[in-house]
Design goal:
By secondary structure, the chain is of the alpha/beta class. The chain has 2 domains: 235 residues, Glycogen Phosphorylase B (Rossmann fold); 160 residues, 3-Layer(aba) Sandwich (Rossmann fold). Helix content is 41%, strand content 15%. The chain is built from 14 helices and 15 strands. A 7-stranded parallel β-sheet has the order 3-2-1-4-5-8-9, with helices on both faces. Helix 8 packs parallel to helix 9 and helix 8 packs across helix 12.
């Protein structure tokens, strides 16, 4: 085994810990990968040595996370001990001090990791404790407030359409959640991005002392607010049933003011959205942009008069909201999950009761008609993003949590 500097000596020498992210993807496939990329760049600026271990091949012509990368196919398969051993050999050779686990649920690997270094679990969404992954009851079009229970979740999948109903796949998902929660002690710390997510973990038996709640952060905060296109509404995100884009169409269909709606995103529910837009007679007012590069999306955040955030599921955070606020754009959103942790009602935008299309329409139209109100809310949102949702604040919380996890690990193991 390679010689590794004892932790107490690394503290004396002022060395930063060597970090290994472990995730399914290394390309910017979604919010998790965008987060890994952004936080890695900042940590590297501060002198940290950061790498990424991943197991899904990268599609051609896609943006990849900017750090040293290690590809190891099969680390998602808990039954293949050979892959676990290969991963451990890589980790030992790399002399990493801590592992950041993202969208990987191979508990044989995580257990093996914990025998040599501390492990922090980043909980980006609800898959850790929800078989459906969204805590969303599709039949009733509302979030689920119940804690995980395997038998209840099995029947709820059929009664409320909250998870896949193929028996074998559903049992696999339930087994996955049971394994996650029964083996929660394999993790030295949990990182979440909202108090709502922290409460979900606590509801499912994870102790408060092992949870660090830290802020998400926008890509960047412009030095000044750009001139807005007073007719432009923006939606940015995944197009799936729980994201509520169909409710957004119902809201804009009744607007009595000129508007255009930019939809930046994609997903399995897009064909249904196109059909609904056609039925409502608003298809000619909608521009479907698909997934945009960061600089392209930032241009829309700059120019949009209002960002509409119609999510129906318990949002783990809601990155599009603070991205828009950082650009001085007010937000109208359904009040679900963590949304109220970043959107201050009547100050940086409007919170609306989930599913209340008429109130959402009223709030959107108010901001389109009242330029001063929209401007003032946009400035207030930008100020809030700058003060409470900076990357510097996040990195401070993250490095403290990392340091504490390493200290506890070495006290427990005696290394």
């Amino acid at each position: 085994m390679p010689c590794q500097i004892p932790y107490f000596l690394s503290i004396i020498m002022g060395l930063e810990p060597k970090i290994l992210h472990i995730n399914n993807f290394c390309h910017r496939a979604g919010g998790t990968e965008i987060y890994i990329d952004r936080v890695t760049r900042k940590l590297q600026e501060l002198g940290y040595d950061v790498s990424l271990l991943f197991y899904v091949q990268t599609p051609s012509s896609t943006e990849v996370i900017d750090c040293p990368k290690i590809f190891l196919s099969g680390i998602d398969n808990s039954d293949e001990q050979g892959f676990v051993n290969s991963a451990i050999d890589i980790l030992k050779k790399g002399k990493f001090d801590i592992a950041y686990i993202h969208n990987v649920f191979n508990f044989n690997l995580i257990e093996a990791l914990g025998e040599i270094i501390p492990v922090i679990k980043f909980v980006h969404d609800h898959r850790f404790y929800c078989p459906g992954g969204a805590k969303y009851l599709s039949l009733f079009k509302r979030g689920c407030r119940l804690r995980y229970n395997p038998l209840r979740c099995f029947f709820m999948a059929y009664l409320t359409k909250c998870a896949m109903r193929h028996p074998q796949k559903l049992i696999e998902r339930i087994t996955h959640c049971s394994n996650s929660l029964s083996r929660k002690n394999l993790f030295d710390e949990f990182i979440v991005f909202s108090h709502a997510m922290g409460n979900n973990l606590k509801q499912n038996g994870i102790g408060d002392k092992n949870i660090t709640v830290t802020n998400h952060f926008p890509h960047y905060i412009p030095s000044a607010v750009s001139k807005k296109d007073r007719s432009m509404l923006l939606y940015a995100g995944r197009i799936s049933r729980e994201k509520g884009v169909d409710y957004l169409l119902d809201a804009v269909a009744g607007l009595e003011i000129d508007y255009k709606l930019i939809i930046a995103g994609d997903g399995y529910y897009l064909p249904e959205i196109k059909k609904k837009a056609s039925r409502l007679g608003v298809l000619n007012r909608i521009e479907l942009k698909g997934w945009l590069k960061e600089n392209e999306l930032n241009d829309y955040y700059d120019r949009a008069a209002v960002l509409v955030f119609p999510s129906l599921w318990p949002e783990p955070f809601g990155m599009a909201g603070i991205e828009a606020m950082a650009h001085g754009t007010p937000v109208v959103a359904f009040n679900t999950g963590a949304v109220s942790e970043w959107l201050i009602d009547r100050e940086t935008g409007f919170l609306v009761k989930p599913g209340d299309v008429l109130k959402m329409r009223e709030r959107i139209e108010l901001l389109l008609r009242n330029e001063k109100l929209a401007h003032d809310m946009g400035i207030a949102g930008r100020d809030l993003a700058e003060k409470q949702f900076s990357i510097e604040k996040h990195i401070k919380d993250l490095t403290i949590a990392t340091s504490e996890a390493i200290k506890r690990y070495h006290v427990w193991t005696g290394n």
